[in-house]
């Protein structure tokens, strides 16, 4: 079980959040509902989606490395 209060738990949560928001950006209904605000608390979802789409190669490599770490090393 991954602990949220450890560094690797925070990294896993952050990667999953960025990947989920990038997926939300591809779905039209979710894009207009969740990613319409660019400021404030709801703007965090928009900013994570932008990070996920612009840095998709780095995010994908980070997900593979983190999955390897969680499954085999930890």
From TrEMBL:
Domain of life per record? Eukaryota
Q: How does it sit in the membrane?
A: Single-pass type I membrane protein
- Pfam families named among the record's database cross-references: DUF1242
Q: Does the keyword Membrane apply?
A: yes
Protein localization: Golgi apparatus membrane
Q: Which residues cross the membrane?
A: 6-24, 44-72
Where does the protein principally reside? Golgi
UniProt keywords (A-Z) are: Golgi apparatus, Membrane, Signal, Transmembrane, Transmembrane helix
Q: Which residues form a coiled coil?
A: none
Similarity-based family: Belongs to the KISH family.
Q: What does this protein do?
A: Involved in the early part of the secretory pathway.
Q: What is this protein called?
A: Protein kish
